[in-house]
What we know:
Layout: E1 5-11, H1 18-30, E2 35-40, H2 54-64, E3 71-73, H3 76-80, H4 86-94, E4 99-105, H5 118-124, E5 126-130, E6 142-144, H6 152-157, H7 169-178
Parallel strand pairs: 1-2, 1-4, 2-3, 4-5, 5-6
Helix pairs in contact: 4-5
Amino acid sequence: xxxxxxxxxxxxxxxxxxxxxxxxxxxxxxxxxxxxxxxxxxxxxxxxxxxxxxxxxxxxxxxxxxxxxxxxxxxxxxxxxxxxxxxxxxxxxxxxxxxxxxxxxxxxxxxxxxxxxxxxxxxxxxxxxxxxxxxxxxxxxxxxxxxxxxxxxxxxxxxxxxxxxxxxxxxxxxxxxxxx
Length: 180
């Protein structure tokens, strides 16, 4: 029997943008997975706060991911409230899936060793790294070539609607321009 596999793509998604969508599409193309689970953090351990509230980010993600039934947006970290640790999320899904791919952006590579219970996490997942700028992807990581030069933090600084998916463009622009 084929083992079940999943890819987890977590983050703040504050706001979700077309780069996030591109990562999802590339993951579905390249990885042999049964499901792609997108997990917005309630609060990231590496960020003091988020501009958009958790439930709004969750709602936006659900709107932009309906194009593929293999994508599930999970509220596991939002329901828990408090800081979100990837190892806890991985352990939850490990009960249901044999193989877990964990998708991160290349900008996370330099701080990966600081992640909560990194050694345990490293043993449980296959790392998938979405390219970013000219950051080199080391051997042993699965590479997702994503050439979308935008980040959520840049969008929060200067909202440019061209980077926001059409399904949520109007409400995202309105939210961030009225909550500066």
